[in-house]
Write a structure and sequence with these properties.
The chain has 821 residues and is an alpha+beta fold. The chain is 24% helix and 28% strand. A hairpin with a 5-residue loop joins strand 19 and strand 20. It is globular, with a radius of gyration of 27 Å. The protein starts with 12 loop residues before the first strand and ends in a 15-residue tail after the last strand. The structure holds flavin-adenine dinucleotide (FAD).
């Protein structure tokens, strides 16, 4: 839009921010046919973090969805190179070095799962790495991987090319136009105020980069990100003229990355003593109003470790002159994942917090966010990047800061499954936490909660158990086996207080939930329903149990980490339906203790006058009873496949309730157990976990949850039409249980599954089942290959391990243990 042209009074979509994020969202919206779009930029395009990016485009990430997004970016950059708005895309290949044996294992693991989506990552020898990048010293290098389609790109050219294409597609772009306010009415964004006038709109997309938190505050939304100072240097020219450019090079063990820049090198890295810029523990970020097209002063002392490490790998770095050092701020998030999607304000989207890989991901980000806006949801499962994953604790600037600093410090560290964060702990604890700590609990953290993984004090009872081989044996204890076996044979007591709990009440509560859920939830007071909430494509957006507590009151229990996400989903649905329903997060109000196992009834009977027989207290029902002196809502449900109850009580009773349950069971062999034992038992029973086995990309039919779907219920439900259409087409894949022939080979997730020489799927979750004595893995397989008895192979760190599709569930298929009298 020419500078002298008036801003429109109203448009459908306003994008705030003319960096690579905003430009890509604009382009992809135009590709989806959106014409009524305005992008406003407070200064010039690319004048935020984009212009000073090092421009490396590495595709491989720990998360499959992000890797697929980066692969799409590369496709797009190739197209741009060939097109009218050409950008300097250099597809020079990329090398990742392993300077430790553990890193080599990580590389092999990545190579194996890269195969599942056709990423041509290959292991190369140390000698081959040195041939491709002759400047390296191979001292200490134990292996390498090479990805021929990695490269680098000029970030400003990329941003401008995307903006030009967006313009050509009808998007208007207004530079030097600053957003100063956003109006939200009835939970929905209505207009933006700029220094050149106001614009009514239906949708706002916050692509503000490190300014996104400030823009979020204008709408009352918290975007938890921290502007971090990130540095790289550019050397003097010293490379001989050569035909092909050097590949990019990463040596994560030494915290450094390189790429060629004309005849010199760019070298940067992730230091162990990072520095936040403008944000402090006591105040939100306050990026200066005139910080555009600018850099921060060089900080050599902080760069020293990186510089020294670079000389270990590229000895020439010790002698070459430095042409410049770039110190630029960039938005990092508390978990190194992006902030994408619709916020709690309807129509207010965000695409920011790109954690120094926004150039690599820009294509994919723009595509995903544009789909989200136009189609209501993205085509990939991007739960790890969904803004709704952050709980209210991230309204705290201190929490955001300490977690972000820790994430930056550990950017290149190997993300071993089960690895624990340290910063800002403990934050959320159960009333029984002191008991757990005094009894040797090993805590894992989820959504700020301290949760018992296992009690080291139980380890001696599991003496015979052998740790799984490799990484699966890293954060392992024989206590896990002991707690599993004791629960199956006697009883286990588990603290599940961290479960997210949502109360839905009001005159329309029942009809709202009946619309949101695929199962019937309008049932009798006291009935408990296991159900999924689906998106319009029939994908599983949430998975929870619903208890009808009173005619107009429903209690929902969902996974610890999913509370904010599921709340946001329910609230949006309520707004869409105009439902008169109150939706409240009551997670902290009640404790939840699970007592499961064949002796659970006997133990509970010692503490309650309630009749616990099958006739009086049916499976999947709830009753208000007293346990010891505590008023409790008892739910006869299980996540381990055993007889038992989940007991919900107001938190002030929590310490006493735990103590009394424990005392009542000790002489009957009761053990206190943790989440690792629960996971092992749920794998044997085939209970699905949202975010791994079931996701927004999978339907209940594919996931083996068709028994929940009530297609015929009056009024239908969200996602029904898509499910019907998918039924008519016929399912293409099904979630299957696989047992591996070698019980000590235990999967971690994402491993490819092969039949003959065809890669047919990828592991969603797995582990060891101590009762069935088998290594178990779940994977979606083509329907034709999903029959029990089919022989498969699973790739574990480069070794193909034989396995077989098993009939589900592996444990107690008749369910007699759950219904035991
Ligand atoms: C030193 C450094 C090296 C990097 N190297 C790499 C790399 O090698 N590879 C890689 O993939 N990534 C890299 N990155 C990261 C990458 O550059 C960023 O992730 C990306 O550029 C961020 O783009 P953005 O659009 O989110 O933000 P920005 O480019 O910052 O754009 C946000 C825009 O919003 C505008 N804005 C803010 N507030 C308002 C308002 N109120 N009204 C209107 N407009 C507003 C700003 O002016 C700005 O232009 C690097 C980053 C740094 C700092």
């Amino acid at each position: 839009m020419p500078a002298d042209q008036q801003l429109p009074d109203a448009v459908r979509i306003v994008i705030i921010g003319g960096g690579v994020g905003g430009a890509s969202v604009a382009y992809h919206l135009s590709e989806l046919g959106e014409r009524d779009v305005l992008l406003v930029e407070r200064d010039e395009l690319t004048s935020g973090s984009t212009f000073h990016s090092a421009g490396l485009v590495g595709q491989l990430r720990a998360d499959p969805a992000l890797t697929r997004m980066n692969m799409y970016s590369v496709e797009l950059y190739r197209k741009l190179l060939a097109g009218e708005h050409a950008v300097a895309w250099t597809e020079c290949g990329g090398i990742k070095l392993a300077s430790s044996s553990e890193r080599l294992q990580e590389i092999r693991r990545q190579i194996s799962w890269a195969r599942t989506y056709g990423l041509p990552l290959e292991e190369i020898s140390v000698r081959e790495a040195a041939e491709l990048f002759p400047l390296i010293s191979t001292d200490g290098v134990v292996g390498a991987a090479y990805l021929p389609s990695d490269g680098y790109i000029d970030p400003s050219q990329l941003c401008n090319a995307l903006a030009n294409l967006a313009r050509a597609g009808g998007v208007r772009i207004a530079p030097r136009t600053r957003v100063v306010g956003i109006d939200v009415e009835d939970g929905r964004v209505r207009r933006v105020h700029t220094d050149k006038g106001e614009i009514a709109c239906e949708i706002v997309v916050n692509c503000g980069g490190m300014f996104a938190a400030e823009i979020g505050r204008m709408a009352g939304v918290r975007i938890p990100l921290i502007p971090m100072s990130h540095q790289y240097l550019v050397t003097e020219a010293f490379l001989p003229e050569r035909g092909d450019p050097l590949p990019t090079l990463r040596d994560p063990d030494l915290l450094v990355y390189f790429r060629q820049e004309v005849n010199g090198l760019v070298m940067g890295g992730y230091e162990r003593d990072p520095e936040a810029w403008t944000a402090t523990a006591g105040s939100y970020d306050a990026v200066p109003a005139d910080f555009n097209g600018r850099l921060l002063p060089e900080n050599w002392p902080r760069f020293e470790q990186i510089a020294q490490n670079s000389q270990i790998r590229v000895p020439d770095m010790a002698d070459i002159g430095v042409r410049m050092i770039v110190n630029g701020p960039e938005a990092f998030t508390p978990d190194n994942e992006f902030c994408l999607g619709e916020t709690e304000v309807d129509g207010f989207f965000v695409a920011a917090g790109f954690c120094a890989h926004g150039i690599a991901a820009a294509g994919g980000i723009g595509k995903i966010v544009a789909e989200w806006i136009v189609e209501g949801q993205p085509s990939l499962d991007v739960w790890h990047m969904d803004i709704s994953r952050f709980g209210r604790d991230y309204r705290s600037p201190r929490r955001t800061l300490v977690r972000t600093l820790e994430s930056y410090q550990t950017y290149y560290d190997i993300a071993y499954p089960g690895r624990q964060r340290i910063a800002g702990r403990p934050l959320r604890t159960s009333p029984a936490y002191p008991w757990h700590a005094a009894n040797g609990a090993f805590f894992g953290e989820k959504a700020g909660w301290e949760r018992v993984d296992y009690y080291e004090t139980n380890a001696s009872r599991g003496d015979g158990a052998r740790p799984p081989d490799g990484w699966a044996g890293r954060y392992w204890s024989p206590a896990i086996a002991a707690e599993h076996v004791a629960t199956r044979t006697m009883a286990g007591l588990f603290d599940e207080t961290s479960f997210a709990k949502i109360e839905v009440s009001g005159p329309d509560a029942a009809t709202l939930l009946e619309w949101v859920c695929d199962n019937r939830v309008i049932r009798g007071v006291g009935d408990v329903t296991y159900t999924q909430a689906l998106n319009r494509r029939g994908g599983i957006e949430a998975d929870f149990t619903v208890t009808r507590v009173a005619a107009e009151v429903f209690s929902i229990v969902t996974g610890t980490a999913f509370g904010s996400h599921d709340m946001a989903w329910l609230r949006k649905q309520a707004r869409r339906c105009g439902a008169r329903a109150r939706i409240e997060d009551v997670t902290g109000r009640d404790v939840c203790y699970a007592l499961w196992g064949p002796r659970s009834r006997k133990i509970l009977a010692r503490l309650t006058p309630a009749d616990l027989s099958n006739e009086a207290f049916r499976f999947m029902t709830a009753q208000q009873i007293t346990v010891a002196d505590v008023p409790v809502r008892a739910l006869r449900v299980t996540f381990v496949g055993e007889l038992g109850w989940e007991l919900y009580a107001s938190s002030e009773f929590g310490a006493a309730l735990w103590r009394d349950l424990w005392s009542a069971g000790v002489d009957l062999g009761l053990v206190a157990g943790g989440y690792r034992a629960i996971d092992s038992m749920r794998l044997e029973k085939g209970y699905r976990v949202w975010g791994a086995d079931i996701t927004p990309e999978t339907t209940p039919y594919e996931a083996g949850l068709g028994f929940c779907v009530k297609l015929g219920k009056p009024g239908g439900f969200e996602g029904r039409d898509a499910l019907v259409a998918s039924q008519e087409r016929g399912a293409e894949r099904r979630l299957c249980a696989i047992t591996l022939h070698d019980p000590h080979s235990v999967v971690l997730g994402n491993e490819p599954v092969r039949i003959g020489d065809r890669i047919v799927g990828r592991v969603t979750s797995g582990g060891y089942g101590y009762t069935v004595d088998a290594s178990i893995a779940y994977a979606y397989l083509p329907v034709a290959d999903a029959e029990p008895g089919t022989t498969v192979c699973v790739d574990l760190f480069g070794d193909w391990i034989d396995g077989v599709v098993a009939a589900e569930p592996l444990f107690d298929p008749a369910g007699s243990r759950i219904r035991a009298s």
